[in-house]
Specification:
heterodimer, A: 380 residues, alpha/beta, 7-stranded mixed β-sheet, 17 strands, 37% helix, B: alpha/beta, 12-stranded mixed β-sheet, two-stranded antiparallel ribbon, 14 strands, 34% helix
């Protein structure tokens, strides 16, 4: 049987069979660090898409050094091998983070990018292609393939058999579909399934002067990926004084007004608001470019792109009844909730100050990608 | 309840479908729409919940609140008790979507039929003409497809007689049936009805490809169902009209725009090619970004209002269709009211999120 060939999104310097033969690079090799540095510089010089600028910041030397210092396991490490990445459809740059983590660990990577077209993805791939053409990065270009193919293609199964690890972004259904495919006995699956995120605001900590700061940080967590990244809060839990609730969203609205918006957003907001109002005790507290609606039962995944469902809590302890194991990130404004208490409530993975919800870390959804994507060698 | 029904029935009874100018429409229709708003607030709890910030007495058409039309696909909304549901209409659910569910009682259903008759008579005339349906009779038998296409055909059948279907079960021209129909009614005025794309692809184009034309000199083609597929093939209204006239032998072609969520009060194309708002309806075009009402000539989302529905709160709906209005009371065809055109569907919201890898 002749193996199928995917469509290469970046002109490959090696084909699939050659790629399989390449040996891994050392963990945090100099050429990899130089590549990440160059990658960061190009993204930061372009500044076309906020998502890619954020990626550029994340890839700065200082941040990578810190990530490695904080999260790289001690001991003798070597790359895991050949890693298959199944990327999310439209959170256009998220896959770059897990790819870069794998790259840093020295692995050979094959990245299946979704077939939907969007400008951020296209721009990102162009930057990578430009870097791959530089002779000093040929070792990187040889070991990293970017491909696309239809979701029903047998390629997922074929590639699964080659992989030492599968990094699977996607909803629960996608994750199940990929994990159902046979792989090597020791293949590791790093799966990012359906999650949702929330913000916890302490109204008593909010004064008029801090309103613009909170608004800017909350919007920073929401605007990239049109609020549809798993880590972007769609629900706001609010404790303490409620007097400045509407004011906060009015300030966010001013920030939103300066940004491009989707043609469908206003209609989607109308629909979601009316559905919530019809089915529960809800109250619209702000509605222009952004929508804020007070609800008694939040409905995650209902609407995004500047749509906030607010749940008022009389005390923090009430959080217990609203959060479930799907909660990934809780960002907070005001005093940091006790992490031990929070993690006793649900399978929550991240507790970060508001404004940091999208800040990627090598530890994500409870996985340490550096240790998941390396082999630890023990010596006696 | 019965009082409002009576009031609406009386109004429809005396209505001149395209004879109401702007000032009279405001005087007569606005109080009825306000009454409908109060009626549905009183009889449909979810509607009342949505409208807590709209106590009523709107002084302008553009101030009448509206429901997002897709809400009827997400939940059941009705203003009558279950035992008064006479008929459940289902909209054509586009792929992967649940169809809308529209509950009709006898009063609303009969008001819809009577209104459709009043409006359609303006283009078809009062006489029941021999009728050629540019579709397959199997559509009416197939229970799964019945909802959208079948209901559309069913609604138009009363306007004709000697109902004949131009396509066989395989969507091929049924030449024997067409020839027999032609022999029976050659040279006489006839009525034809079809769905825009199917009429074009399976009948008009099929006849043209075979170099055939039907032996009628007078007659009217009524068609509906949207232009999307024809736009993809770059067929515009002018091309559609001229080839339809050449192959079918009709001298008049009228498109109409309507939806399952507002059956009856359809928007019919006049001789100038414009869709017209009938006396019992109003159309507002809204900015898709701000939902503010737009002046003539600027494309936006189409909001449709109709005084017909009392059994479900669908008298004012924001559709997901884009269009623009062109003028009011001054169309060269002589009909009063606003006239407009439909540009197509609002594009589907982009799927964005970590949660749909495989869907891509």
């Amino acid at each position: 049987m002749i193996p199928m060939q995917p469509e290469y999104l970046i002109k490959p310097t090696s084909d699939l069979s050659q790629w399989q033969q390449y040996r891994c690079l050392p963990v945090a090799d100099a050429v990899t660090l130089a590549f990440c540095h160059a990658f960061s510089e190009v993204l930061l010089s372009q500044r076309q898409h906020s998502e890619l600028t954020a990626l550029g910041f994340w890839l700065r030397e200082a941040n990578l050094a810190q990530q490695l210092k904080r999260h790289l396991p001690a001991g003798q490490l070597s790359a895991l091998g050949h890693v298959l990445h199944i990327t999310p459809n439209n959170v256009d740059s998220m896959f770059a983070y897990s790819w870069c983590c794998s790259l840093l660990m020295g692995n050979c990577n094959l990245v299946r990018v979704s077939q939907s077209s969007n400008p951020v993805k296209t721009a990102l791939l162009q930057v990578i292609e430009g870097l791959f053409q530089r002779p000093e990065f040929s070792a990187i270009a040889d070991r990293n393939l970017f491909v696309e193919y239809p979701k029903d293609s047998p390629l997922s199964a074929q590639l699964s058999c080659l992989a030492d690890a599968r990094v699977i972004w996607g909803g629960d259904d996608s994750v199940r579909a990929i994990r159902a495919l046979p792989a090597k006995p020791a293949t590791r699956d790093i799966a990012f399934g359906n999650r949702w995120s929330a913000c916890l605001i302490d109204g008593d900590s909010l004064v008029a002067d801090s309103l613009p700061v909170l608004a800017e940080r909350l919007w920073r967590d929401v605007y990239p990926h049109a609020q549809q990244a798993c880590s972007s809060p769609q629900v706001v839990f609010w404790t303490g004084a409620k007097t400045m609730q509407a004011d906060l969203f009015a300030v966010i609205d001013q920030l939103a007004e300066t940004q491009p918006r989707q043609l469908t957003a206003a209609n989607e907001h109308l629909l979601a608001s009316q559905w919530l109002l019809a089915n529960q005790q809800a109250e619209q507290i702000f509605r222009q470019r952004v929508t804020a609606i007070r609800v008694t039962q939040a409905q995650t995944g209902l609407c995004a792109d500047g749509f906030f469902q607010i749940v008022n809590l009389s005390e923090k302890a009430q959080l217990r009844q609203y959060i479930d194991e799907g909660l990934q990130t809780l960002s907070y404004f005001g005093p940091c909730p006790d992490p031990q208490w929070i993690s006793s409530l649900a399978k929550i993975d991240r507790l970060v100050p508001v404004g940091q919800a999208l800040a990627f870390s090598a530890v994500w959804d409870g996985y340490n990608l550096f240790s998941e994507l390396t082999r630890q060698v023990t010596y006696e | 309840m019965t009082k409002l029904n009576q009031q609406l029935d009386d109004w429809i009874g005396q209505m001149s479908p395209f004879g109401l100018d702007k000032a009279s429409k405001r005087d007569q229709l606005l109080p009825l729409l306000n009454a409908l708003h109060q009626h549905h607030r009183a009889h449909c709890v979810p509607y009342a919940n949505i409208m807590t910030q709209h106590p009523g007495n709107m002084e302008d058409f553009s101030a009448i609140p509206y429901l997002a039309v897709r809400l009827f696909k997400m939940m059941s909304l009705q203003s009558i008790p279950e035992n008064q549901v006479f008929k459940l209409l289902q909209s054509s659910g586009t792929s992967g979507q649940k169809p809308a569910r529209v509950a009709l009682d006898k009063a609303t259903a009969s008001r819809q039929s009577r209104t459709l008759v009043r409006i359609m008579q303006q283009v078809i005339g009062r006489q029941r003409l021999p009728m050629l349906i540019l579709d397959s009779a199997s559509v009416l038998k197939d229970r799964h497809q019945y909802s959208a296409r079948g209901a559309g055909i069913q609604g138009l059948l009363p306007f004709g007689r000697d109902h004949t279907y131009a396509l066989d079960n395989n969507m091929q021209l049924d030449k024997a049936a067409i020839e027999a129909f032609a022999q029976r009614h050659q040279g006489q005025p006839v009525l034809m009805f079809g769905f825009t794309f199917m009429a074009w692809a399976y009948v008009i184009k099929a006849l043209a490809d075979e170099g055939c034309s039907l032996p009628f000199s007078e007659g009217v083609l009524i068609h509906s169902g949207g232009w999307k597929k024809l736009q993809d093939q770059q067929v515009d209204d002018d091309q559609f009209q001229s080839l339809a006239k050449a192959t079918l032998g009709v001298d008049k072609v009228h498109n109409f725009y309507g939806m399952a969520e507002q059956v009856g009060s359809v928007f019919v194309q006049c001789q100038q090619g414009h869709l017209h708002v009938p006396a019992c309806s109003e159309v507002i075009i809204r900015d898709p970004y701000t939902l503010a009402p737009l002046p003539a000539g600027i494309p936006g989302l189409i909001q449709v209002m109709s005084i017909l529905p009392t059994s479900y709160p669908g008298f004012s709906l924001l559709t997901e269709d884009m269009g623009q209005w062109h003028g009011e009371d001054d169309c060269l065809c002589g009909w009063k009211g606003r006239y407009f055109s439909v540009a197509g569907r609002l594009p589907k919201t982009e799927l964005r999120g970590c949660s749909d890898t495989h869907a891509a």
